[in-house]
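For reproducibility, we list the full input for the zinc ion complex.
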Amino acid sequence: MSVFLTDALSRTLLLMRDSLGADVTNAQLLSALTDTSVVLAADADAISTHSGQSAFVTAALLMARSGHRVYLMSPETTLIGDQPPLAGTRLVDGLLQVGRDLLPTIAFTAGPPAGRVDLVVRFGAANPQVEAGQTISMNAADWSATLGPGDNAKAWQADDWPFGGLAAAALAAGEAFKTSMRRLREHARAPAAFDVAHAPANPVCVELAPPCTPRVVSLPDTDLISGGALTNAALYALLRLPGATGRMRVFDHDDSALSNLNRNMLLVRSRLEIKKVDDLARFSGRLQITPVARRFDKALAASERLPSTVLVGVDDIPSRWLVQKLVPEWLGVGATAGFMAMSSFHTPDLPCAGCLHPIASEAEGPIPTAAFVSFWGGLLLSAQFLRHLAGEAIEQQQMVAFPLRAEGNYSHAILADRECPVDCEAARKRKSAA
Ligand SMILES: [Zn+2]
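The corresponding predicted structure, in tokenized form, follows.
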């Protein structure tokens, strides 16, 4: 097994260990991922929409970043909109090229597999004649995605708005990952809980926003704090908005490393050892991305004037407080914790990011995380951002996703915390009312 592949997947292996005993070896974890075979099948209807193309490309990239063997069964077609990090104008060809530049030794195969596969994913009414352990049918509307049983395929519904398709891809990638995990059941620490967590999904519809939420593509000046996985995922989604315009600055001091390839959705292997922000800026177009190669720390916070809208994707909780103390008019925070992904928004009158995350994590060392989990975090964050821009009045400040069991996704309000480390207005009001 390639030592480079082990390094590239090191964070994913850590996350897998969450529910497994210490006896399982890295080689066993890697085999479980790389032995997982998936057919992605799209018909001409689905793949002739920007939504369907976004779903297909994203599912392929998410699964490849978890080391799975992915077969692309789609008619070759012209890309309708941008699909970064794909280059060129062809969908299958673009994926094959990027596939050779992702994880070491992992690449896509165009066309059908020689035999049986673990999972077939049908986008729209595609009907590949492939034997599979599990078959699922994906579909999407503007803001929602459905996962249904394999015999329930219907014509692709969404057209050019990509969010539902992106959620469909995230759902499908979670199913592929569970297939890998089920290979390791004999190592489960708590077999009954393991079975519940890793059973195939029940039919599910996930909503990122109410169905009639207006489409907004004119984005305000926005700062993104961190160039890591959450920012990658949020930008990955926003760069797919048809005709999006706006100016964004990204703050991060770090270079991309091999161990980021498992989850940074815009990163490819030939762009390692480059500043994360400089790499993200190469996708600048009508949506301008300006790199700021500095850590967002107290000194920078004191000197920098932030725009009214800020998206934060840093793991470090005190850094979230630091941004919140500058009281942006709208702050979005995307995060993951184990197999959970979440996003919250904060305005000056509402409970703040300190109320929601009041304790600085003690955890040290590399953070366990996988492609589809980080992607959910960035997808929720970008969806909340667009709902804000659409003028939607939202009471439930936090959205929570369970990428292995998306049936349990939910949203909720945030309570002001009297001990809020930011000492925000909502917290002070709650204290004085007590
Ligand atoms: Zn607060």
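The chain has two domains: 3-207, 222-433. Residues 249 and 430 are 35 Å apart (CA to CA). Both points were considered when choosing residues for closer inspection.
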